[in-house]
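anyone seen this seq b4? input:
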Amino acid sequence: MTMPRRYWIEFDIQHDSDARLWHGVGVTGFDVPDCLSMVAELFRIGPLPPVRRVTADISLAEPLPVNLGLGVPVWRGVWYPPVNLETGPTRSIDRRAAPSRYPAPVADLPGARGGANSRAEHTWWDEIPYIRGLRWPLMDSHSATYVGGFRLRVQQMRTAYGKDPTLGDMVRDALDFMIAWRPTPDDWFDPTGIRFADQRQLDEYLQAFRDFLFGDRAEPIDPPGRP
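predicted toks r here
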């Protein structure tokens, strides 16, 4: 099955082009025609301007051409402008509005969008959606520094996300992305200081954490080293 990919699409702006296209559009889809069809369907501005550049697998760890808020990049649909925060993921597929001509996608290389804000070091967790605002539930709450009181913290998270579904959706999407990524025990040790014996133990821990927060699991699995 083809997995959706993140794209950043830039247009040759004409004098009458929609202002929402001036800086580019962030879209997640199965391929370029899929993404362009969603842009055309969303904005309904007639024919799209000519496509100037398509960047495939755009990294969210590097500065984007815009400094405004993003939608949900793990959902299929347009996430910049952040319209999918209101519409949710796009499920229908209709390519009739996609332009037939566009440049071949280019790879997004680390540091290629460099500048004053470029990061000197790229880490695996930089790819997790919303990581800058969600380090506590995704990383820091699992840290060896805070291993005491883990179950109380997780219960507080579960209650908070039930009261704030928007925040809960963001945490769930980011957690699903992280679980699909499958960090290794060495990967996990780097930001948390918690060492798992093997991949299976870490996979089970993360899935239990997710299922307790957003499913019907009765209790999470304690991290190694919990008193």
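The longest strand covers residues 5-11. The CA atoms of residues 65 and 108 lie 13 Å apart. kinda curious what u guys think
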